[in-house]
Specification:
This protein has helices at residues 7-41, 112-132, 161-166, 170-174, 176-189, 206-211, 216-219, 225-235, 256-261, 291-304, 314-323, 327-344, 348-355; strands at residues 46-48, 59-69, 75-89, 92-107, 142-146, 193-198, 242-248, 265-271, 280-286. It is α+β, with helices and mostly antiparallel strands and 360 residues long. A 9-stranded mixed sheet has the order 1-7-8-9-6-5-2-3-4, sandwiched between helices. Helix 1 crosses helix 8 (225-235), helix 2 packs parallel to helix 5 and helix 12 (327-344) packs antiparallel against helix 13 (348-355). The two termini are 38 Å apart.
Length: 360
């Protein structure tokens, strides 16, 4: 026990921690029981997991990444999008990597919280550009997108408009979701199976919104779909052999109407991959096809493309790894930027005092 803290104070804290632990345990117990009841209520949404897909179809993974480094007067934004293609060979699988777009710029005077949103907007633009290219690989391919289909699930920030203008695509900023919906719709019409793979549903409440109509008293105990589905598995471990869905996006979602106007319905399902205790959400856009058939086909591919020992499908893992921007690498780029500015400046000492502050 630390001699720096009065033992009486530690005893007070320990008593309070003990009391809180009991309350937390009781709350978890109530939630597990509620999750068991909810599992009974939504039996009609529970379907057996499909077998693996044996047909070797073309498979592509798409992802984007960004990094922001530097002080407020010199923030460096790096963003990139990647497309990985799995090529089936007799001896195994080859992977073709294509960096379909990247962005580098310096911004000034943007709030730290906002600048990350700005960088995300740019990244999503690059990712959607990548999705425009998937039809180059022919019809009937499977495309795994690391994240939701309707991404970002918000309107783009006003602060990112200037960067879109620099890229010569101002209209893409003002009509971003209309453009993305059109890109997805075109791919689906060409026979592509698009799969939005959400590793961490987090605070989403798509499932809870549905359950509020039939199990409101129990559903209101949970903060998110992630928490609910995880505790459903604790309450009924056999649910690992099932998926929960298909569930259509709520039509009152402020952005979903844009996608519906392009003829798309976005349906989702929750499943728990082997080796995980938390669920993932799989999203599939459909036009005329049966929603359940599309989800079953997507889940069969998820099982096929998730080798033993991995938690996520191979195209999702590869796309994420190939586009990941290490923060140290971004800092190196920033130092290189400052170095080159100083080298080319007529007054390096004056310029250096303005730039180098806070860069270490």
């Amino acid at each position: 026990m630390s001699p720096d803290v009065d033992p009486r104070l530690l005893k007070m804290f320990l008593d309070e921690v003990s009391a809180k632990s009991r309350r937390i345990s009781e709350a978890i117990g109530r939630k597990i029981e509620a999750a068991r009841r909810i599992a009974e209520f939504c039996r009609w949404y529970l379907k057996p997991l499909p077998p693996s897909e044996t047909r070797r179809m073309g498979v592509v993974g798409v992802d984007g990444s960004f990094q922001v480094v530097g002080p407020s007067h010199l923030r460096l934004i790096l963003a990139v999008a990647v497309l990985v293609r799995l090529l089936w060979r007799a001896e195994g699988v080859d992977v073709e990597t294509m960096y379909t777009g990247y962005f580098v710029d310096v911004v000034h005077g943007i709030n730290e919280d906002v600048v990350r949103g700005v960088a995300e907007d740019v990244m999503m633009f690059l990712e959607t550009q990548s999705l425009e290219r998937i039809t180059d690989f022919g019809d009937g391919i499977a495309v795994f997108i690391d994240g939701p289909l309707m991404d970002p699930p918000r309107t783009l920030l006003e602060e990112s408009a200037k960067l879109f203008e620099k890229m010569g695509c101002s209209e893409a900023h003002s009509r971003y979701h209309e453009w993305r919906a059109q890109v997805l719709s075109r791919a689906v019409k060409r026979g592509a199976l698009l799969v939005g793979y959400v590793k961490r549903p987090g605070s989403d409440k798509l499932l809870l919104r549905v359950l509020n109509s039939c199990a409101e008293d129990y559903a209101e105990l949970f903060e998110s779909d992630d928490e609910l589905t995880a505790l459903m598995l604790v309450a009924q471990p056999e649910l690992r052999n099932f998926f929960l869905g298909p569930i259509e996006y709520p039509q009152e979602h402020p952005l979903y109407e844009i996608y519906r106007e392009k003829g798309l319905r976005i349906v989702t399902a929750y499943t728990i991959p082997p080796g995980r205790m938390r669920p993932v959400r799989v999203e599939v856009p459909v036009i005329m096809s049966n929603a359940e058939d599309a989800v079953i086909k997507a889940l069969a591919l998820v099982r096929t493309l998730t080798p033993q020992g991995l938690q996520h499908p191979l195209p999702v893992i590869l796309a994420h790894e190939r586009c990941s921007i290490n923060k140290e690498a971004a800092k190196t780029m920033l130092r290189e930027l400052v170095s080159r500015v100083l080298t080319s400046s007529r007054n390096p000492e004056v310029v250096g005092s303005a730039l180098v502050e806070d860069l270490t």
